[in-house]
Amino acid sequence: MLSTIDNNNTKLILMTPRIFVASIGIGVLTGFDNYLYAYGVAKLPVSTSALLIASQLAFTAAFAFLLVKQKFTSYSINSIFLLTFGAVVLALHAKGDRPNGESKKEYVLGFIMTLGAAALYGLILPLFELMYKKAKQGITYTLVMEIQAVSCIFSTVVCTIGMIINKDFQVCLSLHL
Prior knowledge:
Elements: H1 17-43, H2 46-53, H3 56-68, H4 74-92, H5 104-133, H6 141-165, H7 168-176
Helix pairs in contact: 1-5, 1-6, 2-4, 2-5, 3-4, 3-5
Keywords: Membrane, Transmembrane, Transmembrane helix, Transport
Family: Belongs to the purine permeases (TC 2.A.7.14) family.
Subcellular location: Membrane
């Protein structure tokens, strides 16, 4: 004889409204981060943008310290400083790497936006950790996947709106016609 198990306690969605709203906020920030990064890569050589993105480590460490009270050792502080400082020195001393036909203003804007992308992503990672700490519920695989899905959907919405405003879809359509 088969026994029936009553699973009426099983929820389809594990997220609380508070986590849902936080996931939306992180998704929107991720969408803006993607915009900043894409613009920076378009205006800078790959070598320079890669070096600037390396500064994300320092931003992540600083925001982790401020938001989630991450503890640091002298070794971790030293390594973060040396890696970030080395990347900044290399990026600032690359004088002849500006793409042909690009103005100094566009190059500087790309530099600033790429650095902004590194800083924003350095904030996003500790925000996820903070959200998990403040969740007031057990963090399960299913919950993490729900959080990721919501943040990715809203990041995609922000990027799609940006592409519509920039008329990027018209460029795609004209290439196929």
